TrEMBL record:
It comes from the Bacteria. The chain holds residues 361 to 571 of 571 of the full protein. The lineage of its organism: Bacteria, Bacillati, Actinomycetota, Actinomycetes, Micrococcales. Residues 7-208 form the DhaL domain. This is Dihydroxyacetone kinase family protein.
Length: 211
């Protein structure tokens, strides 16, 4: 049922909060090289806000769909920056694949992830090669579509997260053209995009703890 799904989603958001707290300094360090250095803080605040909103929604008796909308709104508000707005929008888009009065299947989960990535593409307007999280999200989505057989959401997401990690690491070879990094241009060469790295970290967490 939706309440069970909502409880699992809240659990995943707790794990997102924990991993972002662990990675905060490193993500900030990477963002400081070519960006403004706040990506670790943005992800830490955003996931913390989302996890707290999910707990409140659970206590209010919310189903999966409502919980994800509230978590997404809280993520954007708590994080502040570009990536927070995109992650918040992704959660809100993912919410629409869930119902407040019905359970989910492995396919629902994969569709939710797809909807979230679509939202990032639509809201951010970035394409592959712009040195953003999209450079991890697009290969991730393709790998997920290949790996998903209809009932292995967790394993498929985990294997696609490995592809996302390699793609994120490979962004070190591109010069930034979008986001705040663009004003500093070539300074980003040799350093991966922080948002691509955090995307791969969160998808690894999702794949590991979905089951
Ligand atoms: P800000 O750039 O506002 O300081 P963050 O540091 O939290 O926000 O996030 C930076 C990350 O956001 C970048 O590393 C990149 O992955 C992602 N990003 C920035 N602009 C876009 C965009 N237009 N589309 C997709 N992702 C983007
Ligand atoms: Mg930043
Ligand atoms: Mg900033």
């Amino acid at each position: 049922e939706s309440r069970e799904v909502a409880t699992r989603i809240a659990g995943v958001l707790d794990l997102f909060e924990a991993v972002c707290a662990r990675e905060e300094a490193e993500l900030g360090r990477i963002d400081a090289i070519a960006g403004d250095g706040d990506h670790g803080q943005g992800m830490a605040y955003g996931t913390k806000g989302a996890a707290a909103a999910a707990k409140t929604a659970l206590a209010d008796g919310a189903g999966a769909r409502t919980l994800l909308v509230r978590a997404g709104e809280a993520w954007s508000e708590s994080a502040g920056g570009t990536s927070g707005a995109l992650w918040g929008g992704a959660l809100i888009a993912a919410a629409s694949t869930f119902a407040d009065d019905a359970g989910s299947s492995p396919r629902t989960i994969v569709e939710a992830v797809d909807a979230g990535i679509d939202a990032v593409l639509r809201l951010g307007g970035a394409t592959e090669g712009d040195k953003t999280m999209v450079d991890a999200a697009i290969p991730f989505r393709a790998a997920l579509a290949d790996a998903f057989t209809g009932d292995n959401a967790s394993a498929a997401i985990l294997s696609a997260a490995g592809v996302a990690r390699s793609a994120a690491d490979a962004t070190a070879d591109i010069t930034a053209s979008l986001g705040r990094a663009r004003v500093l241009g070539d300074k980003s060469l040799g350093t991966p995009d922080p948002g691509a790295i955090s995307f791969s970290i969160l998808m690894t967490e999702l794949g590991q703890h979905l089951a």
